[in-house]
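Query structure, 313 tokens:
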């Protein structure tokens, strides 16, 4: 199969996503009826975050991790061989280099594994300096914007569908700096056909779904939207309400997070099936990217999350 044909098959479930900012802005009735055409088992991805302790460049100099270490170049084949999953999400801190030769090698490994980069999660240092993309200081905020733009260019090199980056210290009383930052990023990314996403990320100034929805509406671009995370909420009520607000703005991917499983392989820390049901109800048609954050073997943890997703199909 030719590369172009293969990518066409891989992205069949994504092709109509974000055509006009909110899953194509089709009518609610038509989107709901079309959801059954997208088999959930073909819309599962795995994030390199699940194996974060295995990437030596992601550890601090005084941190110890498991003896087994990964090169990101090997990650596409590892996931494809073990889980038969070909949608990947990579984290910027897991890259050993950003030199063109390294990026070419990574793109080649994605191609050989018949895999596709659905999202590049940007956690570059400049984005977390002081207020990051929301800092009222133009110099600080400008550095964060440039850091994010550099990673958007890397995402384009790797043929990624989207990037995600936190707003830093988002101030709901003064959202103007945040709005301006994302308008700049969206303009840069949109020219490359890449979507910019914001995760409801507790502790990063973006945990309130209501504030994020206001941000999406203020930036007002088809290339800007949500990356809903199942777990990043303080309680069950806030989770159900927040996901219902975020999923209509979800463009390419969400995080299906695993924390702790019982002997039957069921997530015990929150109502995982309810999260999937909300995604279905809101006609989400993107990729469920597995983020395992629990204790123990990440190989088993990722498999448990995949199994949980398949139970809900």
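Result returned for the query:
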């Amino acid at each position: 199969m030719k590369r172009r044909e293969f990518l066409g098959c891989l992205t069949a479930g994504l092709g109509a996503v974000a055509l006009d900012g909110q899953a194509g802005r089709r009518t609610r009735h038509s989107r709901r009826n079309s959801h059954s055409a997208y088999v959930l088992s073909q819309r599962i991805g795995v994030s390199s975050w699940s194996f974060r302790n295995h990437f030596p460049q992601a550890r601090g100099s005084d941190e110890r991790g498991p003896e087994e270490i990964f090169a990101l170049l090997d990650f596409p084949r590892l996931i494809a061989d073990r889980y038969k999953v070909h949608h990947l999400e990579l984290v910027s801190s897991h890259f050993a280099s950003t030199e063109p030769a390294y990026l070419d090698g990574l793109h080649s490994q994605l191609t050989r594994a018949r895999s596709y980069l659905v999202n590049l999660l940007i956690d570059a240092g400049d984005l977390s300096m002081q207020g990051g993309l929301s800092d009222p200081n133009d110099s600080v905020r400008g550095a964060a914007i440039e850091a994010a733009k550099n990673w958007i260019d890397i995402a384009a090199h790797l043929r990624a569908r989207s990037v995600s980056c936190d707003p830093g210290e988002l101030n709901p009383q003064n959202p103007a700096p945040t709005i301006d930052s994302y308008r700049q990023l969206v303009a840069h990314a949109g020219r490359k056909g890449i979507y910019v996403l914001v995760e409801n990320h507790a502790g990063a100034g973006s945990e309130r779904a209501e504030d994020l929805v206001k941000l999406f509406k203020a930036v007002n671009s088809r290339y800007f939207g949500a990356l809903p995370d199942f777990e990043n909420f303080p309680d069950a009520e806030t989770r159900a309400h927040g996901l219902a607000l975020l999923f209509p703005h979800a463009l390419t991917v969400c995080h299906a997070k695993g924390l702790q499983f019982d002997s039957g392989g069921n997530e015990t820390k929150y109502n995982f099936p309810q999260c999937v049901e909300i995604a279905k109800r809101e006609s989400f048609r993107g990729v469920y990217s597995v983020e395992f954050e629990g204790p123990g073997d990440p190989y088993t943890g990722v498999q448990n999350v995949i199994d949980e997703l398949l139970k809900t199909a």
